[in-house]
Amino acid sequence: MKNLILFVGIIMCYFLLTYLDKTYITTNTKIIDFLAKDYSNAMIQDYLESQKKWWWVSYATTPVLLGIKIVLVAFCLNFIKLLDLPGLENLRFSDLVTLVMIAESVFIMAGLYKFIHFYWINTDYTMESLQTYYPMSLLNIREYLSTEKWLAYPLQLFNLFEFFYWGFLAWGIWELSGKKIGLPKSFGLTAMTYGLGLLFWTGVVSFLILNIQS
Fold first, then answer.
1. Quick one: pLDDT band at residue 214, thresholds 50, 70, 90?
2. Could you tell me if 4 and 70 are in contact, meaning their C-beta atoms sit under 8 angstroms apart?
3. Do 193 and 76 contact (CB within 8 A), yes or no?
4. Are 97 and 70 in contact (CB under 8 A)?
5. Distances (CA, A) of 183 to 87, 100, 127, 173
């Protein structure tokens, strides 16, 4: 029941972020300015009408995608049990799911930071800058590093919020062990499990982008 309440709470937060984005950031005016360079007015209007008709899709897919992400991260962390470490002998999968859901608050804060950035700070933005921005990440200085499209996702992952997420997971493992293993070791366990899973996923995404480019 606790996990269900947490999950619903996280979904509500993401629903709020989606609403704020669609209402105040990704506005029709910005979309029209972005598409006007390549498409006719009729095509743009058709696109806006379809967006209006299918507005609910982004809300409907959020619980599904979020649920998959939480389960996969918890699945990666679950391999810790194979190491038979002190304090983690009776570690339950549901405990890891709870930890991952609590840690997800870091990315909710990242979404809120992005909204604040474009609503109050960088108000003279374009859709291009909006699409190529992730809070406190190397993606924001991509033009100084590389223009290769397949590098966009790895550069996005190098951000301060991802680091906080790793730290949150490490802290949770430390707590679940009853503080019988040190925080540095907990961070190492996070890297061995979630980190390797993330590395694999990043490789898959980058490979797909490379294939699409070719």
1. low
2. no
3. yes
4. yes
5. 13, 17, 41, 8
